[in-house]
Amino acid sequence: MLVTEQSPTIPTAGKHGANRALRSGRVIGCRVDETTLLIIGLGRVPAGNISVTIGDDQAGKRSAFVSEWRLPAPSPQAKHGFAALLPAGDADTPITTIQFAEEEAGSQFIVASRLVSVGEAAALLVESAGTQSAAIVNRVVDNLMAGNLNRRRLQTITTLLQAAHASDGFVELIGETHDGVTLLQGWNRGMAPSTYRMCAVGSTAPVVAECGIAVFPRAEAPEGASGFIGLLDAGQVTHAPDIEGLVFRGRAGWRHIAVHPKKRIAGPLETPEHIRSVLLRTNGAPEVLLSLRTAANSFEGKETVSGLPHPVRMGIDNIFEADGGNLLASGWLYDPEGHVATVKLRRHNAAATLDECWTRFQRPDVTDSFNEQQPTTPGFWGEQHTHGFIAQAQLPADDPDARLYFELTLRDLRRAFLPVRPARTSARSAALRQLGAIDPANCALPAIIDTQIVPFLGRSGRSAPVIDTVLDAGPFDEENSPPIVIGAGESEEDIAPLMALLALDPETRHAPIVIAMPADRFRRQATRLMERARFYRLSVRLVSVKEPGDVYDMLEAGTLSLTCETVVSLSASLIPRGRGWYGKLVTAAASLKGSIISPVLAYEDHSIRWAGSWIEGDTGDQPVVGRYAGYPLKAITDMKLTRIAAASLECCIMPRDALARVGGFSGGYLGAQEKGLDLGLRLNRSGIGSYLLPSVQMWGCDDARDGHGPAIAALVEEIDRKIFKSQCSPVLAVEKQPEKRSA
Question: Is residue 73 part of a domain?
Fold first, then answer.
């Protein structure tokens, strides 16, 4: 596309208008921006940076930049004209007179009461300076560009340059790139191969950046003009559709080039082809041509690794994306000859260098696969087959539809790309799925956990459970007595036996009951549970939670569906050891307002699973311990209501807003044990007292709580322990062990 029409010019004042406006001893002004005024007048004023006095205020002198010229047609009253850039000062105070330089030798002028527009001022300056106007405007623009550049100031600069110079070209194509630079292509008479200081004019904040320009011949261009192409690296603030023109400093000074209204905008996937179409004909500095070649070899939405002439291939097994652009990728890279210099994961102009932080491990299956296709590379026998990799990365997630891809840069600077589509899921689900794909006997597993899984989970943000559906079976009065919130997570068994026990207990038969469960389980069981609730004549509310989660996520969701003051939480994997447990918890809570009170959790063999958590003085690998775990229940027979460091949220009575006060459960944990302990400690530190009520016991087992196989369960326990230690140990190290005492 070649556009040769002239861009709109600034209307100039007629000769009569100019003579009437510019008179000796009188100046006019226009506002450049909020901080600067442009003053134009006739008279002899010293050029350069000089002091000025506004009105009669001799103490409030300001420094102004002055550029002066000899009038083309001098008169007895004035032989020179001048333009001055003056600090605006207080906008509410009118300027009546202005004096340049010292009082004895300075010249005093009357300032016109009305400020003119920038267009009027530019026209008057150009008409007054005549053939010198280009040099005068260039000096004024030089001073303006050196200051604090803003959109209004840049628009003033554009107006001055358009008034002083006729248009000699257009920008016809603006291309976006994945590297964050902007492609500019068009024709111009004044551009030569060089690197220019350039600023895009438009609706975005102006940024002056370097732009390497190369030129190429265009037979259809006007005489003396040539095509140009360049890459403007102005960062993320420049958006191609917003660019309306360019201000740049060339060999002859500052110039403006317009962007034609019919400009073409090329997206990141189209831009490389436009560069390649002219690259072989361009003439420019070596570094400029190199940057153009690099941009021409950018990602175009295609897989290009398989087309490399070297034995370099890549495959991705899994790639997960959690909230906030938190990524976890696994796959293999076959590069027996070491051609690959860097491996990056990219989105838009953001990149994460994976080869600096990934964990490599043995993948002999990759070697065997390629050995069947071609002879083994000489010297490869006996080497480590560390083709596999796992890497975590963080990339911006402001545009979820933006393409995600791997970029391989070879040692010869060639680049190849592999686009991928991440599976969007929670960090917990991604980590569990990735762990399930790793052989537990893999010798790289400890490094994978420490350098990939734990940091990946550590960056995961907290996601509050989202309630999907709420159903009530009959009347539900949550103010009559504290509701029992039952959390049925992913691993809990059928809760029908628990509902039967609650119906047989006179205290819980009339208590409001909330059952919270994941949406898929809700769809399967809601009808049956509603029928069972009506059969037992229980007051039941069913809560469906959109995302899958553990028992604590369900307990939190169930609590969010209520508005009462106090709730009783109960994991669906627990059952009461006997009747009366509900009344005892309610009575204890009445005497300890605003506290959390938990019963003892026991195994079916009458041994203790949990009977309180205490902070040990020695904050080693286990800074928080359960002192009675494994003991028979008779070991706590004589214990009374006891203050502890953290309650168990699997079963407790607590203020309904307690979870909201501390921000809910922490994200990043894979299992429930440390996740619940973490929240229990934070609740205690927030001033909500935690107590153990030994006279109440609940039965349960560990297997129902974690729901994983033995191998994964061991990894989950190890990972959660490391996350808990990194998050809680610094705080626990300065806390003293609370004294056990009867309440």
Answer: yes
Whether residue 115 is found in the same domain as residue 227:
no
Q: How many domains does the chain have?
A: 4
Q: How many residues appear in the chain? A: 743
* Cα 704 to Cα 48: distance, rounded to the nearest angstrom: 83
Q: How open is the CA angle 16-17-18, to the nearest 5 degrees?
A: 90
Domain that holds residue 404: 305-371+385-421
In a domain, 450, yes or no: no
List average pLDDT for each run of 10 residues in the chain, which is 743 residues long.
Answer: 41 41 84 91 89 74 90 85 85 76 70 90 92 93 90 93 87 90 90 91 86 91 88 78 89 89 91 94 94 93 93 95 92 93 91 94 87 55 74 87 92 94 91 90 92 91 85 85 90 82 93 93 91 92 88 92 93 91 95 93 92 73 78 90 92 93 86 88 90 93 60 87 78 51 36
Instruction: Give a yes or no: residue 280 inside a domain.
Output: yes
Residues 358 and 268 in one domain: no
Q: Strands 208-216 and 253-266, how do they pair?
A: unpaired
**Residue 115 is assigned to a structural domain of this protein:** yes
DSSP string spanning 314-377?
Answer: EEEEEEEEEGGGEEEEEEEEE-TT--EEEEEEEETTEEEEGGGT-EEE--HHHHHHHHHHSPPP
H runs (alpha helix) in 48-132: 118-129
